[in-house]
Write a structure and sequence with these properties.
The protein is mostly helical and about 180 residues long. Helix content is about 80%, strand content about 0%.
């Protein structure tokens, strides 16, 4: 049974969903290649991470598709935040002990969940009567959100990394308070 996009994913979630994820991506996932480079100082571990990220993305597509066609958009949204928080937790607190395979697979699972859901939410707000002004404003909001995340992430990574996880947790919880209650 297939549902239409409008009943599956409310378009009103797009801006908030994308802004919160952009902020949290800026806190740490944006820095993952840099952290891997700093730890290993070689290109091979970075390419291994990218390879496993691609494998995780492809594996997640199958599960994501099955949840999507059944109309489980709340599960998909929850999963996107859970995977992002899991990736941040593993990267922050277990980088030295974490296998690049696990980190790459988690990154791929999160990226599939996030990008596919963002695409569906974007399609739910798109229409023939939308103006470029709406999408230009969205780009400003998302760009500002990402840059704030990068700024805070860079600062707290050097001083108190646990704050990154706490901010990520608060952002995900805030989304649920505002939308899925």
């Amino acid at each position: 049974m297939s549902r239409t996009t409008s009943t599956l994913a409310p378009g009103s979630y797009f801006t908030l969903f994308s802004a919160i994820h952009s902020f949290v991506i800026g806190l740490l996932p944006f820095y993952l290649p840099i952290l891997i480079w700093q730890q290993y100082q070689q290109l091979a571990p970075l390419t291994e991470f990218i390879t496993w990220t691609g494998a995780g993305f492809i594996v997640a597509l199958w599960a994501w598709h099955h949840l999507f066609i059944r109309g489980y958009w709340r599960i998909l949204i929850t999963l996107s935040f859970v995977l992002e928080l899991g990736l941040i937790y593993v990267a922050l607190f277990h980088v030295a002990n974490t296998n690049l395979i696990i980190l790459g697979l988690l990154n791929g699972l999160f990226n599939c969940s996030y990008w596919m859901l963002q695409r569906i939410l974007f399609n739910s707000i798109s229409g023939s009567n939308n103006t470029g002004r709406l999408f230009g404003n969205l780009q400003l909001i998302l760009g500002l959100s990402l840059k704030l995340g990068i700024l805070f992430g860079g600062y707290f990574m050097q001083t108190q990394p646990w704050v990154i996880f706490a901010l990520s947790l608060m952002a995900a919880f805030g989304f649920y308070l505002l939308t899925l209650n």
